[in-house]
Amino acid sequence: TAEIGSVIIFPGTMSVIIFGYIGGILVDRRGPLYVLNIGVTFLSVSFLTASFLLETTSWFMTIIIVFVLGGLSFT
Question: Where in this chain does the record put each Major facilitator superfamily (MFS) profile domain (predicted)?
Fold first, then answer.
């Protein structure tokens, strides 16, 4: 539906762009292992939060997806 595309997926896509840029800067300054640890932490916390709070609004799931895709762009 239109809600899935515009409200949930689009912010996640924008987060990949932003987190990818930030991740590139951090790799240059701190190294790849530091950025990998941040990415794995984002993924772990986001998936654990989503698993405990499944019956929430689409806005909350949008926030979780932003951090999941941000973590994926760091890893």
Answer: 1-75
